Amino acid sequence: MMEVLAVIAAVIIALVLLALHGNRVGPSCGDTLAGKAYVTDGDGIRVGGYEVRLAGLDAPEWDQWAQHQDGDWFQHGKWVKSELIRAIGGKHVHVTVHDCDRYGRLIGTVTCNGHDVGEWLVEHGYAIAAYGDQYRLIETEARRAGRGMWGHATSFDPRSWRQRRKMDG
Questions:
Q1: Mean pLDDT along residues 25-49
Q2: Is the pTM of this model over 0.85?
Q3: Domain spans in the chain, listed from the N-terminal domain onward
Q4: What is the CATH number assigned to the segment(s) 28-168?
């Protein structure tokens, strides 16, 4: 009898929590999330326990390489991640959630001290404008000025890098 009462109490508590919080498991489109930024890669951070992918851009993959003008090859993705850590790592950020990707990450616009982090990444040539037109004009200017990847002797679009890696197995 006590076991039955315990199960009934658990069900009642679960129903009350569901009624209070709905069926949301995390932030949804239009929500704002704020907290300390932990950089996971060149276009991803963790905020308040949520994985966030910066909207409107694509940065080099961790294992992606590029070539300096002097001919030396370097780990492009690792370098971009380091630059993002210097810019926002451990700092307070705001994320405006736009969507969720197929991996369960939130997709959002990230700001730090009132500045759009995605815009900064594209403006400095650390990322390309992708998945929309949000940063297209900014990328055009970065290309024209030869900033970041646009000044390297050889660099790769992260999407084609991933595609080639997938084909290579």
A1: 93
A2: no
A3: 28-168
A4: 2.40.50.90
